[in-house]
Amino acid sequence: MEFSVIVPAYNEAGRLNQSLDRILEFMEQWGYPFEVIVVDDGSTDSTASIVEEKKKNHKELRLIRLPSNQGKGYAVKMGVLQANGKYILFSDADLSTPIEELPNLFHWIEKGYDIAIASRAFRGAKLEVRQPFHREFMGRVFNLFVRVFLLPDIHDTQCGFKLFRREVAKEVFRRQRLKGFSFDFEVLYIGRKLGYKIKEVPVRWRHSPGSKVKVLKNGFSSLLDIFKTRWRGKG
């Protein structure tokens, strides 16, 4: 098994079917042996049944069902810890970063990096549809805090499209503690502390309406998580 694609999903019935079709079609055409693992994070809609139905025609598709909503970070962690691939990608269900960007990240893994992350802020990124101004502004302010306190050389920690070598992913995610949206910077911080090489890769990106991130509520809790992560890193 070469690639595992982890897709966390919470009430994603409206777009998951189309996203899975796109992922499966691309991975089949790319030619590497693969699996796609959807982690249903306690959805109350038909997310799980959509995956179960699609599994009938796609043996590469797996479903992990969590009994209650735990948070995106926890869902990704559960997928990573059960993944079989030599390389492990996690991707947002909305495919704001197209699955077709995977080879661009894999190029840098082949060059010797341990983690390759999609970036909307790195030179060369193409934002085909931008976020509303307030979300983009708050995102920049938040990333400034991340760079000051945790990861000074990474321009965009929160883009939901990251590729890991298997052994790196397993080691990093076993140490992950944050269950929510803050997990992105936490796993990169852990990876950096463990000495792994991280490559930031500019990608095509398109804002998708319906984001689960609430700017004020999640933004405040994520700021607190920055300081929690920094404090734990001192131990």
What order do the helices and strands come in, and which of them pair?
Layout: E1 3-9, H1 16-30, E2 34-41, H2 47-55, E3 61-66, H3 72-81, E4 87-91, H4 102-110, E5 115-119, E6 126-129, H5 133-149, E7 161-165, H6 166-175, H7 183-193, E8 198-202, E9 204-206, H8 215-233
Parallel strand pairs: 1-2, 1-4, 2-3, 5-8, 6-9
Antiparallel strand pairs: 4-7, 5-7
Model description:
With 235 residues, the protein is α/β, with parallel strands linked by helices. The protein has one domain: Spore Coat Polysaccharide Biosynthesis Protein SpsA, Chain A (Alpha-Beta Complex). It has helices spanning 16-30, 47-55, 72-81, 102-110, 133-149, 166-175, 183-193, 215-233, and strands spanning 3-9, 34-41, 61-66, 87-91, 115-119, 126-129, 161-165, 198-202, 204-206. The strands form 2 sheets. It has a 7-stranded mixed beta sheet with strand order 3-2-1-4-7-5-8, with helices on both faces. The chain has a two-stranded parallel sheet with strand order 6-9. Helix 1 (16-30) links the parallel strand 1 (3-9) and strand 2 (34-41). The model has no long low-confidence stretch (mean pLDDT 91).
